[in-house]
Amino acid sequence: MENGKDESLHQFIGAGIEKKIGVGMKIAERKNVAIEAAIKSGKILLKNFRRPITTKFKRDKSLVTNIDLKVEDAIVELIKGHFAEDSILSEENRYLRRGAEFRWIIDPLDGTHNYIHGIDAFGTSIALEFEGEVVFGVICMPVPNELYTAGKGEGAYRNGKKIS
C-alpha cells in the first residue's frame, strides 16, 4: 500500500510539474511571437508616419486610421499563423474568439491622435493572458526605437536591459 500511495503522490506531483513546464514553454513561445509582432508593427508605423492616411470614427466616436487596421492585420496574421487556437481581443474589435487558454490583447496604434498629427509619441501594445491573468506584455515605441517587455515574475526591460 505504501508504494501505491507513494506512486500516486509521485504521479500527481510529476503531472503538476510537467503541466507547469509545459505552460512555461507555451508562454515563452508566445513571448517570442509577441516581440516579433511588436517589431513588425513598429516598422509599419514608421514607414507610414507623417504620410497621408485615412481616418474614420468608430461606433464609440473614437478615431481609427487605415494604419491602425493595417498594423492590427499584421499582428493578428502572425499570431494566428503560430497559435490559431488562441483568443484575440483587439482595440479595433475585428478579431475576437472566446474560451481559449491564451488570449492576446492588442492596441495596434496606441496614440492614434498623436500619429495623425505627426507627433512622435505612439506605439503598439500587446499583452498576453493565460487563463485570465496577464503574464507578458510588450510595447514598441518606433520613433525612439524602444522595445519594452515585461513578464510576470521577470521584471521589465527596455531594449533587452532590465529596468525593474
Secondary structural class:
alpha+beta
Q: What is the domain total for the residues?
A: 1
Task: Report the total helices.
Answer: 3
Low-confidence stretches: 1-6, 8-18
- Give the helix proportion (percent range): 40-55%
**Considering the protein shown, what is the CATH homologous superfamily?**
Fructose-1,6-Bisphosphatase, subunit A, domain 1
Summarize the helix and strand pattern as letters: HEEHEEHEEEEE
Structure summary, number of beta strands = 9
Which range does the strand content fall in?
25-35%
The CATH class is: Alpha Beta
Cα Rg? 19 Å
- Return the average pLDDT rounded to an integer: 87
CATH architecture: 2-Layer Sandwich
Q: Can you offer a commentary on this structure?
A:
It holds the Pfam family Inositol_P. One of its GO terms (biological process) is signal transduction. Keywords: Hydrolase, Magnesium, Metal-binding. InterPro entries: Inositol_monoP_metal-BS (IPR020583), Inositol_monophosphatase-like (IPR000760). GO terms for molecular function: inositol monophosphate 1-phosphatase activity; metal ion binding. By secondary structure, this protein is of the alpha+beta class. It has one domain: Fructose-1,6-Bisphosphatase, Chain A, domain 1 (2-Layer Sandwich). Helices cover 42% and strands 29% of the residues. The chain is built from three helices and nine strands; from the N terminus they run αββαββαβββββ. The strands form two sheets. The chain has a seven-stranded mixed sheet with strand order 3-4-5-6-7-8-9. The protein has a two-stranded antiparallel ribbon with strand order 1-2. Strand 7 and strand 8 form a beta hairpin. Helix 1 packs antiparallel against helix 2. It is globular, with a radius of gyration of 19 Å. The N terminus is likely disordered.
